[in-house]
Design goal:
Blueprint: E1 5-11, E2 16-19, E3 25-38, E4 44-56, H1 57-66, E5 72-85, E6 91-106, E7 116-117
Length: 118
């Protein structure tokens, strides 16, 4: 089995770029997905899930250039779990989506953008 996830959602923030001493770069942003569900009483309600996304290399350039808060995009990648020690020495856990393919669906800004980035 492969670790693979596909999400369609809206950006919760503008992408942020980080460049490392090695020259590699990553771009991070949050992505909100929405789902309408019915509860036991048959009432419909909307649920929003927030996903932390990381894209690397050329894909980070495209995300930074073309994506803005509120834009709709489709993302394919994998789920990654990691842990680290914070400044106080406590172990922190993080779940991220590492993006491999990104498709721009509808920009809020109305800017011209490519249909797909791979």
């Amino acid at each position: 089995m492969k670790n693979r996830i596909t999400l369609i959602g809206r950006l919760g923030q503008n992408p942020e770029l980080k460049t490392f001493d090695s020259g590699s770069q990553k771009c991070t942003f949050s992505l909100a997905t929405h789902e309408s569900i019915k509860n036991a009483q048959g009432e419909k309600r909307d649920e929003t899930q927030w996903h932390q996304v990381v894209v690397w290399g050329a894909l980070s350039d495209l995300a930074l250039k073309y994506l803005k808060k509120g834009d709709l995009c489709a993302l394919e990648g994998k789920v990654q779990y990691r842990s680290y020690q914070d400044a106080q020495g406590a172990t922190q856990y993080r779940t991220e989506i590492v993006g491999k393919d990104l498709q721009f669906l509808s920009p809020v800004s109305g800017a011209d953008m490519p249909n797909e980035a791979k």
